[in-house]
């Protein structure tokens, strides 16, 4: 299932285009073609009204205002950020919903699984879009078409390769009619997998496709998700105002199937406030009811209001592109000893304590919250050799000496210029500058320069491999072995920056294994290869820390996948 860039991506909205719209037909065929973009009064500003099914707010309804990350894009096909997912959690529904209390049935009322564990048949409840139109199985089938069609450009398409035929369709070697997705009738959706998966319902709850209507998607074209009128809403709220780089206003959707029993707050306002001092002042003065993320500098001042979630928030990684931005850089970065020198020269403990003390320094792929077979942590039961959290300068220097010898260089002064790319926030700058300084102090490397861009530009560089080194976080996967798929060549987050055939083969063995002990043993072997390869360097595990006023109850943020989990949110002023 699809995975997302974690919540570090906040602060700017990118109106991404829907690439290469294709036409989906009920008979399972598709043809390429362009669609006209529907014009809306708010398409350029990102604001507008959509009030046909929203609650009447004239009688001073319960409202909630908080500061949090703005979505990068609300195009559901192109989205890959946790900040996007947090908003989609309020705006869209799916077959199942992952809540603070666990997995809950949503549009799926009941389901059946075939004896071989491959075919899931979902029986849908009566539910409507915000405009009153019924949500049907065909809308889910079309969504899966959009996520896997090679014409749509979904960056998360490989996350759906567990559906039979999806990989072949997405890579151009198969057709949609061979994909294991079928709308039997309006109320029955059938999905056939490539292999049995005991975690499939949890996957659907945490990262499942939301329904899409073909007529609307094709009418919007490149404008899909760019304004309140360029979205359709199947979830508990509709977006009634969107001021780019400023705020989003969510208003209760009375057409939502469970509107009377869940999401009681009628109006939610999400503010974008980049400055930590301003955010703290607004919270202290009561202008906002919550902070979705507590700044490090105010963690002590807000200790009485802060809740810390240490679940599966995700991991910050340092990515090294062995192909480089120049031929000279590629020659150096493709050298494994050089990458290991960078890896071992990092003092994760002191760096994380300085820049984000609520997070946990880490130097291996598998976070400690994954359970092992014997009741403990997977990380403890299946250890791997990895750099110490304090670093090992002597070992790093030995790796560097080997690298220079292999590269035919006599000193670090001969190393080419290399570009460390990130986006323009203070924390990212501090983190990257600290790493650059450690590489300078511990290895004598002075040719790595920091390039900061607006977040949209930076993520564009990341997606197109226009970097030598990049720092970015991704959300946690559901299992330790599921996480491996991110990093195979061509995986969700390894777009050719690192290739290891042995690793890729092991991941295939993990996927094929049916015995959990075998899966875990193979996972351990694959993780060791990834850590040794040092192109994708784990740095620290993310921790969610949010602050709420004393009168707020039921505020929660998803610890798997994404979501402002406000099913039971109460504002008792």
UniProtKB/TrEMBL annotation:
Cell compartments where the protein resides: Cell envelope
Q: Which GO terms describe its biological process?
A: peptide transport
Domain of life (superkingdom):
Bacteria
Cited Gene3D superfamilies: Dipeptide-binding Protein, Domain 1, Dipeptide-binding Protein, Domain 3, Periplasmic binding protein-like II
Mind listing the UniProt keywords for this protein, alphabetically?
A: Signal, Transport
- What InterPro entries does this protein's entry cite? Peptide/Ni-bd (IPR030678), SBP_5 (IPR039424), SBP_5_dom (IPR000914)
Predominant location category:
other
Q: Name one GO molecular function term.
A: peptide transmembrane transporter activity
Pfam families in the record? SBP_bac_5
Residue ranges, annotated region (Disordered): 27-56
Q: Which GO terms describe its cellular component?
A: ATP-binding cassette (ABC) transporter complex; cell envelope; periplasmic space
What SUPFAM superfamilies has UniProt attached to this entry? Periplasmic binding protein-like II
Which parts of the sequence belong to the Solute-binding protein family domain? 103-494
For this chain, the family text in UniProt reads: Belongs to the bacterial solute-binding protein 5 family.
Q: What is this protein called?
A: Peptide ABC transporter substrate-binding protein
Organism in which the protein naturally occurs:
Candidatus Faecivivens stercoravium
> Source organism lineage?
Bacteria, Bacillati, Bacillota, Clostridia, Eubacteriales
């Amino acid at each position: 299932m699809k995975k997302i860039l974690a919540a570090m991506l906040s602060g700017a909205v990118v109106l991404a285009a829907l690439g290469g719209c294709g036409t989906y037909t009920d008979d399972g065929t598709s043809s390429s073609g362009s669609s006209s973009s529907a014009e809306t009064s708010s398409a350029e500003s990102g604001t507008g009204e959509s009030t046909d099914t929203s609650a009447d707010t004239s009688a001073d309804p319960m409202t909630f205002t908080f500061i949090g990350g703005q979505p990068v894009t609300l195009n559901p096909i192109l989205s890959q950020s946790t900040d996007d997912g947090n908003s989609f959690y309020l705006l869209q529904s799916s077959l199942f919903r992952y809540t603070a209390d666990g997995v809950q049935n949503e549009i799926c009322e009941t389901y059946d699984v075939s004896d071989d564990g491959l075919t899931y048949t979902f029986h849908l409840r009566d539910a409507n879009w915000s405009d009153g139109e019924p949500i049907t199985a065909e809308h889910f089938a079309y969504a899966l078409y959009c996520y896997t069609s090679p014409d749509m450009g979904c960056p998360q398409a490989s996350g759906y390769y567990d559906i039979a035929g999806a990989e072949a369709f997405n890579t151009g070697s198969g057709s949609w009619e061979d994909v294991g997705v079928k709308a039997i009738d309006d109320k029955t959706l059938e999905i056939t997998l490539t292999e049995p998966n005991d975690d499939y319902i949890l996957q659907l709850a945490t990262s499942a496709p939301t329904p899409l209507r073909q007529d609307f998607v094709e009418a919007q074209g490149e404008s899909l998700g760019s304004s309140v009128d360029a979205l359709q809403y199947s979830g508990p709220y509709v977006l009634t105002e969107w001021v780019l780089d400023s705020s989003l206003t969510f208003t209760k959707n009375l057409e939502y199937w469970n509107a009377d029993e869940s999401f009681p707050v009628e109006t939610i306002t999400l503010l974008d406030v980049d400055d930590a001092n301003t955010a703290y002042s607004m919270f202290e003065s009561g202008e906002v009811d919550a902070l979705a993320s507590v700044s490090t500098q105010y963690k002590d001042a807000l200790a009485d209001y802060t809740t810390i979630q240490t679940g599966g928030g995700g991991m910050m990684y340092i990515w090294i592109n062995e192909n480089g931005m120049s031929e000279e850089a590629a020659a150096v970065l493709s050298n494994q000893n050089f990458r290991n020198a960078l890896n071992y020269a990092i003092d994760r403990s002191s760096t994380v304590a300085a820049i984000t003390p609520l997070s946990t320094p880490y130097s291996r792929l598998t976070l400690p919250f994954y359970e092992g077979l014997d009741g403990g942590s997977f990380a403890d039961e299946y250890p791997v050799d990895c750099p110490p959290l304090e670093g090992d300068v002597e070992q790093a220097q030995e790796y560097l000496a080997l690298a220079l010898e292999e590269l035919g260089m006599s000193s670090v002064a001969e190393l080419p210029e290399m570009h460390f790319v990130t986006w323009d926030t203070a924390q990212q700058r501090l983190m990257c500058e600290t790493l650059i300084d450690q590489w300078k102090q511990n290895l004598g490397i002075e040719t790595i320069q920091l390039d900061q861009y607006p977040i949209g530009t930076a993520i564009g560089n990341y997606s197109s491999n226009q970097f030598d080194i990049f720092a970015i976080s991704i959300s946690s996967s559901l299992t330790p072995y599921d996480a491996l798929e991110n990093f195979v060549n061509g995986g969700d987050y390894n777009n050719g920056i690192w290739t290891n055939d042995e690793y890729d083969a092991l991941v295939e063995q993990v996927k094929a294994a049916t015995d959990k002990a075998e899966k875990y043993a193979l996972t351990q072997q694959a993780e060791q290869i990834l850590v040794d390869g040092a192109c994708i360097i784990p740095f620290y595990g993310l921790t969610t820390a949010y602050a709420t006023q004393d009168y707020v109850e039921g505020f929660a943020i998803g610890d798997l996948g994404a979501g402002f989990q406000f099913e039971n949110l109460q504002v008792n002023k």
